[in-house]
Amino acid sequence: MYRPCRAGTIEIIHVPMKHFRVGKNV
């Protein structure tokens, strides 16, 4: 139960993090 919860959290944080990096780069 902890594994899927952690994976979901990492994916949710990874999506905005990538967008933030692109916006900052631009």
Class computed from helices, strands and strand pairing: mainly alpha
Shape descriptor: rod-shaped
How many DSSP H or I helices? Answer: 1
**Overall radius of gyration:** 12 Å
What is the total tally of β strands? 0
> What are the low-pLDDT stretches, counting only 5+ consecutive residues below 50?
none
Q: Span between N and C termini?
A: 38 Å
Average pLDDT value?
59
Order of helix and strand elements from N to C terminus: H
What amount of the residues lies in strands?
under 5%
Estimated helix fraction: over 70%
Largest sheet: none
Question: How would you sum up this structure, described in words?
Answer:
It is built from 1 helix and no strands. With 26 residues, it is mainly alpha-helical. The chain is rod-shaped and about 25 Å long. The mean pLDDT is 59.
List the topology elements.
Layout: H1 2-25
What is this structure, in a nutshell?
This protein has 26 residues and is mainly alpha-helical. The chain has one helix spanning 2-25.
